[in-house]
Amino acid sequence: MKALVFQGPGRTAWQEVPDPDIKDAADAIVRVDAVTICGTDLHIIKGDVPEVEPGRVLGHEAVGTVVETGGDVRSVRPGDRVLISCISACGRCRFCREGRYGQCRGGGGWVLGHTIDGTQAEYVRVPFADLSVYALPNTVDSFDAVLLADIFPTSYEVGVLNGGVGPGDTVVVVGAGPIGLAAIATARLYSPGRVVVVDLAESRLAAARKLGADATAGADEGPEQLIEDLTDGLGADVVIEAVGVPEAFEMCTRMVRPGGRVANIGVHGKPAVLHLEDLWIKDVTITTGLVDTSSTPMLLRMMAAGRLTSAELITHRFELGEMEQAYEVFGRAAETGAVKVALGGPQHTAVSVPDAPAPDAR
């Protein structure tokens, strides 16, 4: 089969690799039907995630069709269309029992495209399949469902829930990439007073406004002053960092109000300065986190019911064999206007469900 292989910092190739095999009775082999590229993949290629070794097949988000399962797999069978989670869960360790699958100590956590071969391939081996893939209803399109592999649960859990977004809050999202845009959509589930988005690219700010941002600002247009003006000098209740660079994180800590929360989602490859000389007196809470994907079943139900929008997120589509071209477009998002790119062949289209008939009035 062919796959996108990391060959060292700055180098990848779409090349022939061996087909995956069942290695454990809890494994499933899935044919990849729809796959996407994550900002974390760009961090890997830059060398920001040194534990990813040359020769690794990248990718941790996909929708596909089960072609083979190990003897212990009970929740899916060959022929099932499934969502592949970015997090694998052994289900037995302390953290899995707490629903903190991202911290799995039993061989799971973030392994796909990280410590084992990932999803940017024609086929992928998924460990712990019973807890790491989700059967998809016919009402959910494959290209929509692939957004539930990572960006929606990440933005919801690590951004919105960790940040404690509540009704009436002023929420600032720094970074309007896929994660930041998903944070807008999921923050709005909690009726914040306003959502303000900061980014360098006007195309992404435009996407943020379409998804419901109440105000936007370029990173070079005085966003800190804007927040001060909007909050009468108080600062934002919640600031979500969705970039992963020191300047963005430090900006977030300057925009938060006393007693507010900074929720860091971004993948950081360089140290950021924590200005405790300013923050110690402000009762500020700073959270970090890797997604657990414990919210994925709930988000999937919301998407199936039409309550979770995927509009404005996938901006470019490619055939699977155009992986290198897709990376080029995604990596130059400021020039291409790319938000999320998706790859795959002819896709499953959601089946519309007719409205239920009116109840008999007798």
Automatic annotation (TrEMBL):
Coiled coil residues, start to end? none
Cofactors demanded by this protein: Zn(2+)
Q: Which UniProt keywords apply?
A: Metal-binding, Oxidoreductase, Zinc
Q: Which SUPFAM superfamilies match?
A: GroES-like, NAD(P)-binding Rossmann-fold domains
Q: Which domain of life is it from?
A: Bacteria
Q: Does the keyword Transmembrane helix apply?
A: no
Keyword field contains Metal-binding: yes
Q: What InterPro entries has UniProt attached to this entry?
A: ADH-like_C (IPR013149), ADH-like_N (IPR013154), ADH_Zn_CS (IPR002328), ER (IPR020843), GroES-like_sf (IPR011032), NAD(P)-bd_dom_sf (IPR036291)
Query: Where in this chain does the record put each Enoyl reductase (ER) domain?
Result: 10-343
Q: Which family does it belong to?
A: Belongs to the zinc-containing alcohol dehydrogenase family.
Q: What is this protein called?
A: Zinc-dependent alcohol dehydrogenase family protein
